[in-house]
């Protein structure tokens, strides 16, 4: 007997509701057999017949959301795979320098966007940005793709332009030597969108062969990404914009109508997207004053769809004249209760565990020493290591061994030092003395920033005198 029509409709509605409750970007899981891939009929660029493009929205652990695209033509067999970043353009560009010395370095996974410039200085190779589509590949895969591109039409070139073909053959031999690791070389990825990444095979340990630097984009690079501000607009456009803003519901406050004291006691709210499932939610923001330090902005977000809770801290002041480095010895329960303000520019390091966390990993937060340690541990437990297969027993054992050491630190069975290094000087660690002087387990060092640190903070291009002139 067939089911009742009402029951069928109810079942379909429940199935739709379950689909809507799932995050838009889901983790790749070998146990998830129902992959939410979208199929689109599209034209083959080789034979111009109809093929199928499959789109999969997913997340890469320790990285961000991406869109995987796979095309296959059943007529001519042409296949093409691409990856595009689904995350917003980052606040800063990123420059990743990898020293390739072993076969493991050649096998590192690489995520690069459309805006990534690839360089290998030893062979004078440069692949400009926007000349190739974004992809997930390996270091060896980048060299292979370059060789394939150079070999294209090489036979025809040998007949028509023999000298150029001979030079290309010589260059291909140099690239083959890199693949065979006859000599070490350097791979540089420079991405103005900030959406590129190179795998760390030794994670969670620090990556000694790879260095990552963030940099401020120039106006030309912002324009290339489609980012403009009012200073890039003509004066007439600015005046027109101001006239339109006068008609908006949000109008500027009169001077004195909203005092600084009113702002301290007010909790502001604004709409945003959940960092996990990208659903619409609200962020609460409040300006507060930390004793013996400075004013900070605390922001908290709660998502009603997936239950994600985040808190973030922004500095209420500017960049300090000097960077600051805190070294905290963790030996007793009292050491775990210290208040800690970690800014977005502050990196963390535990030398005894060979553990290093970059400034962007945990973001800015106001917590305790114990809270920092738990946040580091939770991130490792909740996310699988970058790209590694679930059956990789060596990797799983290395991670479990590291987590056991981490638990010994939290349970105070092992004494370690926690180092917070903030080039911007906007981080803070509480002293256990009443006079706010550093106690015997807290070392505070202020230092002059290096050129690279100033470059990452965007200070090298700041003009403090005669800045109105070009």
**What is the CATH C-level name of the largest domain?**
Mainly Beta
Oligomer: single chain
Please count the beta strands (DSSP E, at least 2 residues each): 25
Return the structural class. Answer: alpha+beta
Strand content: 25-35%
Tally of helical runs: 12
Shape: globular
Q: Distance between the terminal alpha carbons, to the nearest Å? A: 82 Å
Model regions low in confidence, pLDDT < 50 over at least 5 residues: 1-6, 384-391
In CATH, what is the homologous superfamily of the largest domain?
ZPR1, A/B domain
Helix content: 25-40%
CATH architecture group name of the largest domain: Sandwich
- Average pLDDT metric: 79
Query: Taking Cα atoms only, what radius of gyration do you get, to the nearest Å?
Result: 27 Å
Largest sheet: 5 strands, mixed
**Any idea of the CATH topology of the largest domain?**
Jelly Rolls
How many domains? The number is: 4
Organism: Glossina pallidipes
GO cellular component, one term: nucleus
Protein name: Zinc finger protein ZPR1
Family: Belongs to the ZPR1 family.
């Amino acid at each position: 007997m067939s089911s009742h029509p009402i029951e069928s409709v109810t079942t379909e509605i429940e199935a739709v509701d379950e689909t809507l409750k799932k995050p838009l970007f889901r983790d790749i899981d070998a146990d998830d057999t129902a992959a939410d891939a979208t199929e689109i009929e599209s034209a083959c660029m080789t034979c111009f017949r109809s093929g199928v493009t499959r789109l999969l929205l997913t997340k890469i652990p320790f990285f961000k959301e991406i869109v995987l695209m796979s095309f296959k033509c059943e007529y001519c067999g042409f296949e093409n795979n691409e990856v595009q970043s689904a995350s917003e353009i980052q606040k800063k560009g990123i420059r990743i320098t990898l020293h390739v010395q072993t076969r493991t370095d050649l096998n590192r996974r690489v995520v690069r966007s459309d805006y990534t410039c690839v360089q290998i200085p030893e062979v004078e190779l440069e692949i400009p940005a926007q000349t190739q589509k974004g992809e997930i590949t390996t270091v060896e895969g980048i060299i292979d793709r370059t060789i394939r591109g150079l070999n294209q039409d090489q036979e025809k070139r040998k007949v028509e332009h023999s000298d150029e073909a001979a030079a290309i053959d010589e260059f291909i031999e140099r690239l083959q030597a890199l693949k065979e690791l006859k000599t070490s070389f350097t791979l540089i990825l420079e991405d103005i969108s900030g959406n590129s990444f190179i795998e760390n095979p030794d994670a969670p340990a620090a990556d000694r062969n790879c260095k990552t630097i963030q940099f401020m984009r120039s106006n030309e690079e912002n324009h290339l990404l489609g980012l403009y501000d009012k200073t890039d607009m003509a004066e007439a456009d600015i005046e027109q914009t101001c006239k339109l803003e006068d008609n908006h519901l949000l109008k500027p406050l009169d001077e004195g109508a909203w005092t600084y004291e009113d702002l301290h006691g007010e909790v502001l709210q604004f709409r945003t997207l959940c960092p996990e499932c990208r659903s619409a939610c609200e962020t609460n923001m409040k300006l507060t004053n930390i004793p013996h330090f400075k004013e900070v902005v605390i922001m908290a977000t709660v998502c009603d769809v997936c239950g994600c809770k985040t808190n973030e801290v922004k500095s209420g002041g500017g960049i300090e004249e000097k960077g600051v480095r805190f070294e905290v010895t963790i030996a007793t329960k009292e050491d775990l209760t210290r208040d800690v303000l970690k800014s977005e520019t502050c990196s963390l390091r535990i030398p005894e565990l060979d553990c290093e966390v970059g400034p962007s990993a945990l973001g800015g937060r106001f917590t305790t020493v114990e809270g920092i340690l738990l946040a580091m541990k939770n991130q490792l437990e909740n996310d699988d290591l970058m790209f590694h297969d679930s059956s990789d027993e060596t990797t799983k054992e290395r991670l479990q061994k590291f987590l056991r050491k981490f638990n010994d630190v939290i349970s105070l069975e092992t004494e370690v030092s926690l180092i917070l290094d903030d080039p911007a000087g906007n981080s803070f660690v509480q002293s256990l003395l009443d006079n706010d002087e550093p106690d015997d387990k807290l070392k505070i060092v202020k230092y002059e920033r290096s050129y690279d640190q100033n470059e990452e903070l965007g200070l090298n291009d700041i003009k403090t005198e005669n800045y109105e002139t070009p």
